[in-house]
Amino acid sequence: MMKVLLIQPLPAPVFDILQTALAGKAQVQMLSSIDETEFARAAATAEVLINGFGKLTARMLALAPKVRFVQQLGVGYDNLDLEAIRHAGILVANAPGVNTEAVAEHTVMLMLTWLKKFSQAEQAARANKWATLTLTQAGIGDLATATVGLIGFGAIGQAVAERLRGFGPRLLYTARHRAALSIEEKSGVVYVSFAELLATARVVSLHLPLAEETRHMMGAKELAQMQAGVVLINTSRGALVDETALLQALESGQIGGAALDVLEHEADGGNPFTNLPQVIVTPHTAGLSQAATNKLFQIAFGNVVRYVIGQPPQYLIS
User: Do 272 and 130 belong together in one domain?
Assistant: First the structure.
């Protein structure tokens, strides 16, 4: 019987879903920790790996000689060594589109939370301080009068634009490839160059995958081109932003604030912005609504079942 290995520990109910889906079809095992010794022992006989947020490296693949299929438990796959996977002749798939709506909603929430000074207002009220004048002087903003710039205009960028239209901001976007005119008209967006967007937008939101050409694309040079006081939103990948440069720009006042769901180092102690009240950080939860996670498990685990029973897996990463 084929062996399927879930290589990071996940909540027991999630593992139960996988076990139920593969009952009688495959042996299923989940690692109890991210430990190389445990991985080496379990992966030696595995033919399918399911990977979540952890990295899957060439070194790890060398410890799993029988593996022929890798299922990424998510949309993004920058944590996979695709070159090593392909060199080994292993098929690899992700689960595209499962969290588009969830991430788009979270993005708009972060925009509103920052503009409306929600965190400061809630904390003041919780401390039984009615800081109305202080908050007003700090500048409570409106989406209706803002210019919002979207960097990247794939499914999530378009979903964000769709949700923003009702608030009435001016919507700009830039992307490697311009969208069709019909999509621009439907979304209510105007295409501009990267430089023009940086110079014009009051709210800048990132919607790009992480690749070598996009790593640290928001560095000191780009941040300096933005309007003083702008807010940067990132619900994509932490490494799109040079956090050292962002920290310096925030401390100087060049950047007014940031609202981030992703960081470069997403673990305890990995948040360099804890002492800056103008920065909101959520722990990479934008895509984890109940509906999104249920859809993720349905697609990803269903794809594993397809492979196990001899059907071609879907959503292969080319």
Answer: yes
